[in-house]
Specification:
The structure is a single chain. The chain contains 26 helices and three strands. With about 575 residues, it is an all-alpha fold. It folds into three domains: about 110 residues, no CATH class; about 140 residues, no CATH class; about 270 residues, no CATH class. It has a three-stranded mixed beta sheet with strand order 1-3-2. Helix 16 packs across helix 21. It is globular, with a radius of gyration of 24 Å.
């Protein structure tokens, strides 16, 4: 392996006489080409068609190779003095250094073989492909079919890796796996024309494709689904039921796995982009829970309830707060997002051009996943962003959550921030590949607070909904660290969430499953929100009457998703420039 690393380092070497700026630009160019090559599906959405016949190689050998190549890039990067670069390139350097360093470090943990959570798996990522690729030309459809036909190789590699994880004791806890098989088996349908994979062929024939070609492509798709894709999903389902589930972990904490404590500390650093320890994050969470609980008490009293608990009980059981059909819930989400759109120009100077749509979460994963999520679109490929809403268990999806939920997942939350980033004149690796949870999710959570500026929280129920969402994310800090650093089990985590949030039981169960199966990820949300609020307060205090909320928001978003230390430095520089404007 040492020889392989040396060979990679030599391959990436550059002349020592190159100027730092030239050296750095060469590195950026090579690194971006590397990202495209190693992420062929994303390359297609970005209009780079060199890898249209490929799927990402997830084999252990490929992962080791990528880690070695990342280390070689990192070695080159460290040889370039930051003080001889422009301000913009210093920002690029700081972001790239963090990304490369984390790629190298992550590959050292045996948990790298844990390829799925209750929130995501390779099988669902592949099943989403029909909605994430362009379909305009015959070549688009043919490359998609080639990828369908290549799925068994990806699936077999994933199953082999997962079997190795089972042998090493790196498996998900039994407590989170109820119903997980539905997310695998639900993709399999006997009639290929009803498959998610057939969606690109279910609509009208594109003008660029002849009738004969279209008929042939449709037939090939049906064969691929029936003879290739369905059997692969069946192998996955059989493996899960017969090999994985019987060997699930008894402990809910990753710290009880080999190298689990070290892995969790790394996850927390990575997802928060800070040096906070799990104990420090746990304590921040407890403080936030206390603060938000006092706010919830106030809202409950003002609503005429004897206690916060009495109001929450009313919100949980009163049927008037719940849709009776999926269509009703979707209509409410559409109505609220349309209302939000009308407020955006008052709060932002720059708006994204890319639109977004609203869809239901696929039925086979809905009952086991979260309330909603966002899938990015692609300006290059003409694909809108998607706000996915969970329409299962309608008696667990209260309407008073919809404003905060929509602000977070659509605009001005994830769609707004990500679509703006896709349009920015920044380094391509940042525009198309950079996403730091503390920033992206912190911004989404901060966006929920903007509902006050929009007048969306105009009823006690909606006010409690927004506070409940704050409490949800504060409780995450307590629960995630409680499970993985302090040894809590699922029952204790569920009880804490039930005592402190207004979330329904189904949502609490799905969320705690997510924290258990995806250690550390949930800590980024509130840590990011608190940093953005801190920076807003700093700017308001420093600028006084000259503070402009629109300009502040534009300043926060203008660099795309960045680590929190980079964001802080950029906002401090913006405050200084605003002062200089007079």
């Amino acid at each position: 392996m040492r020889f392989a690393v040396l060979a990679v380092a030599l391959a990436f070497a550059v002349p020592v006489h190159a100027a730092p700026a030239d050296d750095f630009q060469n590195l950026l160019d090579e690194h971006y080409r590397w990202l495209l090559r190693e992420n062929p599906e994303i390359a297609t959405t970005l209009g780079v068609r060199d890898y249209d016949d490929r799927l990402r190689d997830i084999s252990p050998a490929a992962r080791d190779r990528r880690a070695a190549e990342a280390q070689a890039f990192l070695t080159r990067l460290d040889a370039i003095p930051a003080d001889r670069l422009s301000h913009g390139d210093r920002v690029n350097r700081a972001i790239l250094r963090r990304q490369l360093g984390e790629e190298v470090e992550a590959n050292r943990f045996p948990q790298r073989d844990m390829l799925f959570t209750t929130y995501y798996g390779w099988h669902q990522g592949f099943a989403d492909m029909p909605r994430s690729l362009p379909f305009r030309t015959r070549a688009d459809f043919e490359s998609y079919l080639t990828r369908l036909e290549a799925y068994p190789r990806l699936n077999d590699a994933a199953l082999a890796i997962t079997a190795n994880a089972v042998r090493g004791g790196h498996v998900l806890p039994c407590s989170v796996l109820d119903g997980y098989e539905r997310g695998i088996g639900g993709v399999i349908v006997e009639d290929p024309t009803q498959s998610r994979f057939y969606e690109p062929f279910a609509g009208d024939r594109p003008n660029a494709v002849s009738e004969a070609e279209w008929t042939a492509l449709q037939a090939r798709a049906r064969r691929a689904i029936t003879a290739v894709v369905n059997p692969a999903y069946q192998r996955h389902l059989d493996f899960y039921l017969n090999e994985y589930r019987p060997r699930c972990a008894q402990s809910d904490s990753v710290r009880d796995q080999p190298q689990g404590a070290e892995y969790y500390a790394f996850q927390v650093r990575s997802f928060t982009t800070t040096d906070l320890t799990p104990q420090q994050i746990h304590d921040i969470g407890l403080r936030e829970v206390t603060r938000i609980r006092a706010e919830m008490d106030r809202v409950a009293r003002e609503a005429g309830f004897a206690s916060r608990d009495a109001f929450i009980q009313e919100l949980r059981i009163n049927p008037t707060y719940y849709a009776t059909t999926a269509e009703e819930l979707m209509r409410e989400a559409a109505r609220v997002t349309t209302e939000i759109n009308g407020h955006l120009p008052r709060l932002f100077g720059t708006l994204p051009r890319l639109t977004y749509t609203i869809r239901e979460i696929p039925a086979e994963i809905a009952e086991g996943t979260t309330t909603a999520y966002y899938a990015p679109g692609s300006p290059t490929s003409g694909i809108a962003g998607t706000f996915y809403v969970n329409t299962s268990r309608l008696n667990q999806r209260p309407l008073w959550e919809v404003p905060a939920l929509s602000l977070h997942e659509s605009v001005p939350g994830h769609h707004f921030q990500i679509a703006l980033q896709q349009e920015m004149d920044i380094a391509p690796f940042r525009r198309n590949f950079s996403s730091f949870t503390a920033f992206t999710e912190g911004w989404g959570l901060y966006s929920e607070s903007l509902g006050h500026d929009m007048g969306l929280y105009n009823t006690p129920a909606r006010q409690m909904g927004e506070l409940s969402y704050q409490m949800w994310r504060a409780s995450r800090l307590v629960v995630d660290t409680g499970i993985h650093a302090l040894g809590w089990d699922k029952a204790r985590a569920v009880q804490f969430m039930r005592e402190n949030t207004a979330l329904t039981d189904a949502n609490i169960n799905a969320e705690v499953n997510r924290y258990i199966s995806w250690p550390g990820q949930a800590t980024g949300y509130m840590i990011g929100r608190l940093k953005i609020i801190e920076l807003r307060q700093r700017a308001e205090q420093a600028l006084g009457d000259r503070f402009d909320l629109r300009r502040f928001h534009d300043a926060v978003l203008r660099n795309g998703s960045v680590p929190l230390d980079v964001l802080e430095a950029e906002i401090d520089a913006w405050i200084a420039s605003e002062r200089a404007r007079g």
